[in-house]
Amino acid sequence: MRALSVLMVTFSAAAMIACSEAQPTGGSGEGAGDSGGSSPSDGGAGASGPSNGGNGDGGSPSEGGTSAASMGTGDVVVNEIDANVDWVELYNKGDGPFDLGGLALADSDGAGGPKLDEAIIFPAGTTIAAGASLFILGKQDEIVSPGEQEPQTECAPGTSPCFFAPWGLSDGDGDEIFLLDGDRLVSSSAYPAAVAAKGETWCRVPDGTGEFEVCTPTPGAANEGL
Prior knowledge:
Blueprint: E1 6-12, H1 13-21, E2 35-42, E3 50-51, E4 54-57, E5 76-82, E6 87-92, E7 98-99, E8 104-107, E9 120-121, E10 127-128, E11 133-137, E12 147-148, E13 163-164, E14 175-181, E15 184-191, H2 193-197, E16 201-205, E17 211-216, E18 224-225
Parallel strand pairs: 4-15, 9-12, 11-13
Antiparallel strand pairs: 1-2, 1-10, 3-4, 5-6, 5-16, 6-11, 7-10, 8-9, 8-14, 14-15, 16-17, 17-18
């Protein structure tokens, strides 16, 4: 396994305090607050082609929308998907930090679009450093609700800090992950039904810049093909 870049996910001070004290539940709405402390972890590397102003790989593009995230030097893509344990990895392939504050992450509604009523929203102050990744653990509906989330420290099998999502990934019909900036698609990646049915991990090899293929699960670490 090659050397990994350092992950730096920066959260608001209030979010980090909440994270250190308990496993909070998420509310609805968009993030707001001042950026504060930081927590290091391990990352990988990644990229994706543009789709309607964002990055897509088998996704369904949306229209319009802008934010500070789209104006920076960071470039985040969906990098790894696993329906066996229900998790997703995002990766910043750019040469600067990427601001996730106010962006939403959703799985498919089954009709080719994002399931917006179950989407999670990253709070203000959440950034991914260049060459770093962020782990999102699904099927946490007993702990969090759709809407704005707080960072979590109980992230197994991934790296900490992470975020929880109430939705899970379909392991029968396949699924799709969407990262949205309002109505604008930032990145999306399909999880094929044939791969999902076998409980296999689907990732870019090498990180971000490669095509998706069946791979060894490596949340927070460099992607490896079988």
